[in-house]
Amino acid sequence: MSTHATAASTSTDEVAFHPDRRFWLIYSFLIIVMFLSALDQTIVGTAMPTIVGDLGGVEHMSWIVTAYTLAITVSMPLYGKLGDLMGRKRTFLVAIALFLAGSALSGFADSMGTFIAFRFLQGLGGGGLMISSQAITADLLPARVRSLYMAPMGAMFGIASVLGPLVGGWLTDSVSWHWVFWINLPLGIAAWIAIAVAMKLPVHTFHGRVDWAGLTLLDVGAVAIVLLATWGGHQFDWLSWQSAALVLVLLVSWGLLPRVESRASEPIIPLTLFTNRTFVVTTLMGMLAMGALFGVMGYLPTYLQMAYGVSATTSGLMLIPMTVGMLVASTLSGALVSRTGHYRAYPPVGALIAAGALVLMSTMDAQSSVFLLSGYTFVLGAGIGLFFQLLVLLVQNAVPQRIVGTATSSNNFFREIGVTLGAALIGAVFTSRLTDQLVTFLGSAASSTDEATRAALQAAQASGLSPASLTPHMVLGLPDVLRSGIIDSYVNALTPIFLWLSPLLVVAALISLALPKIELGTKSGLEQAEEELAAQA
Fold it and tell me: Which domain holds residue 184?
């Protein structure tokens, strides 16, 4: 049996798909490389203080994460287009090699400058791992059964968001921060060998010109967004000339993009995608849903550590129910879509369930049970999981096979923009609210008529207590009169934001109602490509 197994339409409602051992080998490593790409966006967080202390350059600390995120974002469109034009196997192997080289070199870095450069190199590979994995599934699997196999791949992001901080902290404490990066090497090398030997995909010869002008304009705009989201409110004010300059760069570069793409023979993002209703709807849904989810995930661990006094490791473990909910729901919806061929109900239902979970989370206070919080996060994960893995599938099913990689990368590109903006805006709101809450509480404590309260505050301030220097360990050691007020400040700063995020998912549910009904394909992408070539001939 060939690598892509066989898929034939046995009836209008059933697809016979019989994966062989070679398929399972390739599929296993597709999941692994997808996991590695997602893991490296979260594993560095707990190791960052140690890395900065070892290499120096604390003023450049934010670039440890920004360099990787930026490289993933700007490389996505190129991998999608080159995979379509020259064949996905070669671009996938290049992506794995870049990722492994960046991982190995990051572990050997001896200064902050070289470390950031190697993280960027690692991200250039990481973007290809994500895009190529998703596009290759379209080559190997019929759309009708693809949702079942994409469910575990989509769940890798949720699993990595939980395991990343845990593994990063354990490796840093038990071995060395260098192994946070070197841990990628055994699995990555095994994946490279397996893909090189076992995967059989067509290789194309491309004689045209790559759309470098379009890629440059697209990436310049993306860089402006990422830098604005990363530096805004920290390196400079949101209402500053630096912010205005970045917004201007974004408007000019993306304003020129349609004109350049309309003239390119092989545009990096074909303008026809923006007239494809499925692409537009799924892209908007992905941006809204992921912006909300990653906004929650970015600050929920801090909330858990402050409100419940748990360690960083325990706060990560407390997010496992959300991952379980995501995996269970995505597997369930994937199986049902594969069996029935119907998919339009899952996006609105899943988005509304997730919105309801955020409303429930907004009712929490410092006395809320940990089990109650775990239940709410399980529902949130289940709601997202119910539809998230379907979005890429629907895009791939709605475009010609010759641009599947381009459509996949474009969908992921805009979703990554949504994640970046969502996390930045939510972070800005949370930080502002928290500062106001803490200043108000500490001010009231300083002017309290209770002498014991004033004395406790003065002693804490003499030990370094301030709104900018609070840590979970410091809060845990404060007297009850101060600790309860600070915990309430965190609760009051964050939980209303959950309520404000829920309309984003309601809007996503309403947008999903515009999804057109398109029959899911019963042939693999390779078979569709052969038919398209035959039709052209």
Answer: 1-209
